[in-house]
Structure formats: structure tokens, C-alpha cells
Amino acid sequence: MTVAYWIGWLIVLSIWSFLIGGFDRKIVARLQGRYGPPFWQNITDFVKLLYKRGNLATRTATSVVDVALIVGLVAGVLAVSVLPFAGTNGTFQVLAFEGDLIIFAYAFALMALVYVVVGFAGRSPYTIVGASREVSMLISYEIPFILVLVALGYRAALLGGATVNSIFSMSSLMQAKSQVGILVGDPIMLGAFLILLVLGPAMVSAVPFDIPEAETEIVEGYSAELHGPRLAVMFALKHLKLIAYSYFLWSIFLSPSGLAWWANLLLSLLGTLVLSVAINTIPRAVSGRFRIEQGAKFYLIGPGLASLLLLVLVFA
Amino acid sequence: MGYRVPLGPYHPAFEEGEYIELELEGEMVVDAEIKIGFIHRAIEKSATRRTFIKDLGLIERVCGICSYHHSWAYCLAVEKAAGLEVPVRAEYIRVLTGELERIHSHLMYLGAMAHKMGFDTLFMYTWSGREAVMDMLELFSGNRVNYAINTLGGVRRDLDEDTASQIRSALDSLEDLALKLKDTWSKDASILARTRNVGVITKEQAHMLSVVGPTARGSGIHEDIRKTAPYSVYPDLEFDMVVLEDGDVWSRTFVRVLETLESIRIARQVLAKIPSGPIKNPKPVIKIEPRNVMSRVEAPRGELIDHLITDGSDRPFRLKIRTPTLVNLPATEFMMRGCKLADAPVIVGHIDPCMSCMDR
Fold first, then answer.
1. Of A141, A263, A276, B80, which is least packed with CB atoms within 10 Å of its CB?
2. Ranges of residues in chain A whose predicted pLDDT is under 70
3. B11 contacts A290? CB cut-off 8 A
């Protein structure tokens, strides 16, 4: 039964991720004074790409690209699978064990690494530059991300009365949530939430930190050589990343507990939409793109120092 | 170890065909080489096969953005060679059209620059506001792009009071837009991060590279043909030459924001001062005695020179068009050296290159 619920959630979240992408395009268009495409446009784009020919340049290491894309999809599903979903009896996780929070972080880093591998396997100047930029960005936002997760887990263990051994466990976060209500009510948790929100645009490759893609510089960077079904998988992977990160923020920090499953489902969809607008749509609408060294410096100095401070506060 | 990255001939940052080969070390541009000639249409040679009046339509199609200034420079050259007087009212109409074209060209440029930096909202708003001036050009001339307003010895369409009042109200909305752009371009963090201290050249280097127009004025050079070698009725109009000293991409871009405001000021004066009278010298231009003349106008991108040689026939013996991009573009090779890869499209784009003009 749990597996059936999980598959149902995966399908709902996958479709919702494309619809969120469509809403993103619509909202940005309206903010820019345009009409914009219909909100289901990303689903039709995805289907259309699946039907197109996917020939790659002869220099491209095709098998490496294919394996990387499959690994990326698996990592995306893994990232979603360790998150707590709404069920008839509270929440459930398909993959629940000590250290599942680490699996979430690892799956996210793996998805970014897939971009890097696809870029280097593309063997075009644009894809290689895109891949090397992704590596720089990955280092700059992964360090604060991991530090915040450590602070988050430790604080949750303190709040929920769990042992230090389970600081990287979703269940201890859920336990803390049941004690506090909504997690952002706690100042440390609020700090962690705000840092994760600032990390959002880089995690989901949104302007001003879409530097590894930078259409007007390196022509979509690491994915410049992809066509047809492979580009469709990359397209789906980006949407999966956006929904996984938005759902992570929603389910851990903001979702209320004790609701009926259908209310939880509706609120989750609405919450992920609002969060994805905050981390993806708004930054894209109000800012230009930074250079790679500016982006990397921003994350290492801003969220980097803030996450260190948070860690000190948690352990103090 | 270095590697090479091609930008173009077809690239999302550029509207036209141009090829730039960058030699990089990491993200640092070590060397840049620009190759031109992708849009060559043999316009100068074709001009020698047509009569003087038929050449007007051809010359206007050198460029889709500063088309009017090309026809103006050509008219000035032919009128000089033929000794043809232009009525004062026609001169005012020419200046009005020229300044409206400068406004639309600068607004198009500012939008394109925002797009190159990934700031698409600013790009959309700038181009949306630009529609006001495009509408006025269409209302006045009947065309949005190639206005066909010039003719040898004057202009082809008169300006009535109703059109003038619509242009006045459009100028108000354009002024609002230009002031908002002034505010955004001087305060927005992402714009300043991408343009400040990028592509820096000193005034001496700008002189050495022979840059013209806003590219020169943004590098501290006091050079504007409307002021330094006045033509038409510009001496009767009050406006400031906008010069900024910083010499970076931001200052050369900001010059255009301020020049848009100056163009609005000039257009308002034209509408207030335009005298009544004929709009065209009725004397036809058929054959011109052997002459060797040059004309210069301040096009939106800088000094535009037409060199006309006549041989007594009804068509040019030789016509040479020296466009501002031809002198500004090689300077970007110099500006790109030592910059980052991300700066390269911004540096090339910030001179407002027009490959169609340059390749002719």
C-alpha cells in the first residue's frame, strides 16, 4: 500500500513540477508585460522533445551522456523518496532510515554532478565551460547547504529529544515538528529556512545563478549538445530538482501537521508552488545574471558565513 | 593550457551574423579575433548602377535600425555635390526624424544589453516602451523601419499639427521611460556588477583605437558631429553633449540613456520652432558635374561618413559608406583581452554593433 501511495505521489509531483514550470513562465511573462504561454506548455514541450530525433554530435561520448542522465533520474527519484509524504495516517516515507537526510543531500549533489558529466561528455567548448562553471557553483552552494543540514539535524534532535546519532534523519525532523508545530517558529530553524531559501536559485539553476547555462554566453552550457529525448530527460531532471527542493522546504519547515490527506495534498501543491515562485520565478524576474566568480563569492561569503554562524549558535 | 571558444556566426547574444574567436585560459580571455563580412550585400557597388534618386531606397536599406541616418548622409552628399539648397522646414523635419530614430535605436540597444546580461524583464520593459517612438515614426512617415522620408532636396512628407501633438504626448511617455531607465541603470546591483570596470579603456586608448559616437563619449572624448561639425539646423537647437569619463561598459551604456533624454529635448524644440514653408527644393537632380564630396552625420552609433564621387553622369561613380561599427568593433578586441568569458558578449554588444551597416 505504501509503495502504491509513493508511486501516486511521484506521478502527482512529476506532473505538478511541469505545471509549476508552466506557471513560472506565465508569471514571469505577466511581470514582463507579456501574455506568456499556457501553463501546461512545459508538459507539451516535454512530450514534443520525446518525439524528436536525438542525434548527438560524433565527438560526444553518447554512452556516458546516457548513463549520466539515467543516474540523474534515479538520483531525482531518490531525493523525492526520502521526503515525508502525506498519508492517511499522518506522513509516510518509502525510504526511512538513519541518515536519510544525508541521502537527500547526496542525491541533490549527484544531480548537479550529472550536469557536470553531461557537459564534459559533450566535448564542445560550450558544454565544457558549462560543466566547469557547474563545478564552481556546486562547491560554493554545497558547503553552506551541508552546514545548514548539520545545524538543522542537530537542532531537530535537541527539540525532539532524539539522540545525536539520529541528527541526519528525517524522522527526527518530523519528531521536532510534532513538538514545535511549524518548524520556522523556532529561531534557529527560521535561520536555516532563510539560508536554504537563499540557496534555492543556485540549487535549481535559476537566474541570477544560472551561470552554468547562460544562454547569451555559452548557449545553455552543459546541455548545449543535447537534443530530442535526451534533452527531454534533462528538462525533466531540472523540474524534478525544482519540485524536490521546494517540497523539501515545504514538508520540513512549513507544512502543518494533523490534516486530512486531501488537505495535506492540496496544501503541499500550493506550498511547493509558492516556494518555487520564491526561489525560481521572482529572482529570474527581477535580476540579471552574475558572472561565475561573483556567484561563487556570493554563496561562499553570504550563506557560507551565515551557515557557519548558525552552526555555532546550534552547538553553543 | 588555453582553449578556443567561438561566439557566432550565429549566437543567441547577437542579432546578426558575426564571428568572434576567443582564446581562453580558464574563464579569462587571453585574445580575441573578430571576423566580419557575413552580411556583405555589395551595396556600394550596386549604388553605382542606379541613378541618384533610385539610390536613396538602396542606401536606406544598409541598416534596419539607423536607416534614416544613412539616407540623410547620402542626401547631404548628393545635395552638396549638386549644390542643392534644402528648405528650412525640411531641415527641421529631418532633425525630428533623426532624433526619433536615435531614441528608438538607443532604447533597442538598452533592451538588448539587458538581455545579454540575462535581465529579460528590463529587456521587455525597454522594448515595450520603445513601441511609443516606433508608433510615432509610423504615424509620421508611414513606416516603422525604413521611413523613406528623405528625398534629394528635402523631405517627402510634411508634419501637420495633429501628428505634432501626438508626438509631443509620446515624448512625455518616452521621457518617463528614459528616467526610469536612468534610475535602473544607475542603481541595479546586477547591472552594476556586470558593467562596472568591465572593458575599461582610457581616453588616450580610445583616441588610439579611433572609436566614435557614444563609445567615444563614454570614454571621455568630446566628439559629437552635431556639436563639433554641425549640420542641418542643429546649431539652432539647445542640447548637451553627453560625455562620461569612466571608460567602462557602464559609462558607455549610460551615455545612451542620457542621450535619449537629450534627443527628447531636441525633438520638443523642433516641434516648437519648426517654421512654415516648403518641404522640398523642386529642382530635380539628374546629372551631377564631376565632384568629390564627403558628408558626415551623427548616427545613433556614432559618426557616419559618406564619400561620393560623381563623374557628370546620372549615377555615382563611387560611393563609400564608412559606418561607426567599422571603427568601434575592432576596439572591442582590445577591450576583451583580460576580461572574463561572460563579459565578451557584453563588451561586443555594448558598442551597439550593426553588422549590416558595417558589411554593407
1. A263
2. 1, 86-91, 162-165
3. no
Q: Which three cell numbers stand for residue B217?
A: 563619449
Chain B residues within 8 A of A286 when measuring between CB atoms:
121
Burial class (CB in 10 A: 0-12, 13-18, 19+), A48: exposed
Q: Do residue A290 and residue B121 have CB atoms under 8 angstroms apart?
A: no
Q: Does domain B40-328 have CATH number 1.10.645.10?
A: yes
- pLDDT, mean of residues B282-306: 89
Handedness of CA A117, A120, A123, A128 (dihedral sign): positive
Q: How far apart are CA A60 and CA A226, in angstroms?
A: 10
User: For residue B310, with 0-12 CB atoms within 10 Å meaning exposed, 13-18 middle and 19 or more buried, which class applies?
Assistant: buried
Please give the angle made by the CA atoms of B164, B169 and B173, to the nearest 5 degrees.
140
Nearest chain B alpha carbon to A294: B193
Q: What is the pTM of this model?
A: 0.88
Q: For an interface test with A, give the residue of B22, B341, B343 to mutate (most A CBs within 10 A).
A: B341
ipTM of the complex: 0.85
Give residue-wise pLDDT tens across range A222-237: 888 888 899 999 999 9
Q: Where are the domains of chain B?
A: 40-328
Task: Determine contact: B197 vs chain A, CB below 8 A.
Answer: no
